[in-house]
Amino acid sequence: MAVGKSVNRVDAMAKVTGRAKYTEDFYHPDMLVAKYFRSSIAHGRVTAINTKKAENLDGVHAVFTYKDVPENKFPTAGHPLALTEDHKDAADRLLLTRDVRFMGDEIAIVVAQNELVANEALKLIEVSYDEYQPLILPEDILEENARQIHEGSSNIVGEHTYTFGNDVDQAFEKADHVVEGSFRTAMVQHCHIENHISHAYMDDLDKIVIVSSTQIPHIARRIVGEVLNIPLSRIRVIKPFVGGGFGNKQDVILEPMVAFLTLKLNGRAVQINLSREECIIGTRTRHPFYIDVKTGVMNDGTIVARHMDAISITGAYASHGHSVAAAGGSKQSSLYPRAATSFHARTLYANTPVAGAMRAYGSPQIIYALECATEDAARKIGMDSVEFRLKNVARQGDINLLSGKEILSCGLADCLIKGRDFIGWGEKKKEYEKFKTGPVRKGLGLACLSYASGTYPVCVEIAGARIALNQDGTVHVMVGATEIGQGSDTVVAQMVAQTLSFPYENVLVVQAQDTDVTPFDTGAYASRQAYVVSNAVFRAATDLREKILDHAAVMTDIDVAGLDIVDGNIVDTRKSAQVMDMKTLAIDSFYHKERGCQLTAEASFKATTNAPVFGCTFVDITVNIPLCKIKINRMISVHDSGVIINPVQSGGQIHGGAFMGIGAALSEELLIDPKTGYIYNNNLLDYKFPTFTDVPPIHHDFVETFEPTSAYGNKALGEPPVISPPPAIRNAVLDATGLCINSLPLSPHTLFTAFKDHGLIDEKGGDNV
Amino acid sequence: MKMPVTLNINNTTWNLDIDANATLLEVLRNNVLNQQSVHRSCEEGECGACTVLMDGKPVNSCLVMAASAQGSTIITSEGLMRGDELHPLMKAFVDELGLQCGFCTPGMVMSAYALINQWEDEELSDMDIRKAIEGNLCRCTGYVNIVNSIRRAKQAKDAGNWW
Prior knowledge:
Chain A is α+β, with helices and mostly antiparallel strands.
């Protein structure tokens, strides 16, 4: 049984030895490098550009500007093609732009023999601008006479409203209490360790080959074709090992440009390898949100009504745009399905770095506000925070009123109980009663989460798998599901091993993606892969298993009903005896002159279900008032992600997500000058994501349910762990200090302001407590 | 401007003609030495993805001018292998699933190797591990399984399984 075992990753050896090839490791002897010339202002229009000096520099092969690129605007979001207008992404981007919309916008590009020359050439480009006032804050962006960042947009990318359940206004009227709060989340960045990198070349007169660190090879191929107006079959995208993505590579960022450049340069290989600084400001970020929440609650602890109003800032270009607010907002109906709920959200352009997909896609913002508001409501009626959640959260059999689907598996209540017991909720609450005054205070907090296992019914959910029996009795598996570090190749191998009854070691997953070869799948996002691919893998593996047994029956003259595969060998079940090993069968299938054939199976599958997942985080903290510092003493995240295919690897996903959540809660924030749009901390020294010593040992646990719509009972896990830590920490700060600090991150800067405003420390930072 | 430099890399001595302004990272990654385990990321000493051992000490190879490494001994994670055999430290990372995307892994391995090599006490606490290699950033793992890997590697060394 391979499913449920903590087998080693299929790619562990390659990665630990350094032999795994990432995009930069593909060497072309004559490869040129390209570097963007980026704007030094946040908002304006280029009035003149002179590239002559740069072009004349020794070693420069070409300089292209906004004058040289195709005029058709394109969307960059890594979504499957939408066949209906309502789900199409905003097409608002050109390969290079004359209109500058954020500091770092791409105006021109230099192609040179190496990076040194390219950087020198950038200094020789002369540009002048008409400068406009940067629009950074919502009130300025929405001001009546504000300049339109994209003509005709009114600076709004999208807007929508939904309601579910009983009449929301009536429910608020009936509520014993109405609790209100306003919340703000910060612009944070993915900071995958491998920056964005792509190169392209033409392998003959026709075909453009793009090697790229991407989460979405098949989508990248389609969008490159659209941008350059060339048939999709002329474009081949290869995805080698990827050094992390977290959503930032669910966007076509470099692929259209490298394809454009190689076309312009007679097929010569051209690479763009962004620097860390470019990666932070010039790729994608997480949308900052401004959220107002109103909660109607009864004295018995029932949440009866909820209203949420959200503003999401997408920055200079739409990228994933309003989809992020829409997706985040929709999770309310699976977390608190019984409260009458209304939701309104708008997504705005701004002269800031572009926001796109980032781990959990809007849910960290929405659920942060939701879970802070839920805590405030519990306190309003004086009910224990855990009991309050247990009374209100989703349970198996509830109907998700937005999707109209029954929640078929839900272990959230058990997650809450496990988390409560681990953290020692009752005893600690008592112990910490004496730490509510003075300079050192202690508190407990929790927050719940819900997420989905894909994008259906908003987008198509399609996955493919192909399995072939090798002559040595092993199998090779090809999937379109895209390994980016999360471990999807490993769980695919486990699923195949499970269904074929093969030893895990005998299942070999083809690691690189190649759109000319690998089955179609839309890629790594929405925590969809293990869930959606499960049914494709199961179908292909079941088919191959039948073919293997049929061939065994032909070879042995034993009735197929009496044959089985056990640990990779053919067994006569009636005699409980091994008949032959898999290699013997495979050799016969390949080389016997009259019978057999190469045994392969393939399946492509569309999921029309979308299983909700659940979880919670409990945290125990100390707040040092004079130092304005939060120390996490203990933390646990407990998840219901259905059947856990690989417990240790899944634990790693929780640790990584929770760690990213801690960063967002305590220190991570891109700082933008509200007057100029200048980004102060575009590097890993000043952008503080946690180091080894900044985070505590993160604990995790599972409540395993069986999700019947997945072939192996599994549900999403990749993104959800990032969601619940920030509200849990905010709620613990409230428990410790009595203060609702509703803005992320809870950095010393934020805490200082809050403590000063509430008189806990004076102007000079001296404590009054 | 080119200049000659002699480096011993993973027990092979190289006489190289390098660009005077090249970093050790660039020279190690170039098409002569081809040390692809040395990963380029921030290129300013913040992330540790390009960590190698220089005369036994872990350095960010992006911050070392190759010219200044003249005469030194460099070990990259390629150099920890014994033929096809994984170094016990690497095996610990495999067994504890101490990696996800793998991009920080070779640098992490080199910092951990330096730590365990020079650690003389019997006791190596988790906090000792965290402090010693906090210069290496990882965005995938939350560090938990990496600490587990290094703890296991220390046990391997204590059991005499080390080189």
